[in-house]
Specification:
Elements lengths: L1 H80 L11 E3 L2 E7 H4 L11 H14 L5 E7 L13 H18 L7 E5 L12 H7 L1 E7 L1 H5 L3
Parallel strand pairs: 3-4
Antiparallel strand pairs: 1-2, 2-5, 3-5
């Protein structure tokens, strides 16, 4: 009888052990699922933060793009409202209020000199013709320019004086050829308005020049 009882209790013990093992596995599975859920939640939060950042960056880029488009529209409007440039004499370049022409310094003067070379007459006669033809109602501003070579032997105080004397030589020539003196202005810029850096002999030669502007100065200065 007692042996029968023992045989009947063994399955009960085994069932309890199996049930306990299943419970442990379920707890482990639950723990694993909870950990997975936390990881997914963290990743979701991180992704949401990235999306917010990307959205803000996109909004900023949209604002910048719109600002550029507005600026382009404003420039187009300005260009559309700007009057067409007036026609200029041959060899002259349009500028606001008139036109200009540049003559290389070696065409007009020997190095360090202010006396016009004989070869200068052809270039200056063309300027006289343009001023007396197309630009009778303009002021004629003559700008002398030098390179940055210091004055040593020529006797001039500095490049300001040299450039001004050269502008004066051109102004006097134009006056003597019949351009009204009240139209003429002489200016010296020295080496301070260079075309290119004074880093070579060719560049220095390019910076030595005389520029002649035929300008409506009343328009530029807004004077009646």
């Amino acid at each position: 009888m007692s042996g029968l009882i023992i045989r009947r209790t063994v399955p009960v013990v085994m069932l309890v052990m199996v049930a306990g093992g299943c419970a442990t596995k379920e707890k482990q599975r639950i723990t694993l699922l909870e950990e997975t859920n936390r990881n997914l939640t963290d990743r979701l939060n991180l992704t949401s933060g990235d999306l917010d950042t990307m959205s803000s960056e996109r909004d900023e880029l949209d604002r910048r793009l719109q600002a550029v488009l507005d600026e382009v529209d404003a420039l187009r409007q300005t260009l559309a409202e700007r009057p067409d440039p007036e026609e200029v004499a041959p060899g002259w370049t349009p500028v606001p209020g008139g036109a200009m022409i540049a003559i290389e310094g070696n065409v007009l003067f020997e190095p360090g000199k202010v006396t016009l070379r004989s070869e200068a007459r052809r270039a200056l006669e063309a300027i006289v013709s343009a001023v007396q033809g197309e630009y009778t109602n303009k002021d004629v501003l003559v700008f002398g320019h030098t390179d940055d070579t210091p004055i040593k032997k020529s006797g001039w105080t500095d490049n300001y004086q040299l450039s001004t004397e050269r502008a004066l030589a051109v102004v006097r020539y134009l006056r003597d050829r019949g351009v009204p003196p009240q139209q003429l202005v002489a200016c010296g810029c020295g080496e301070h308005r260079k075309r290119v850096a004074n880093t070579s002999a060719a560049n220095r030669a390019a910076n030595r020049r005389v520029e002649v502007f035929a300008i409506d100065t009343e328009l530029l200065t807004a004077q009646p």
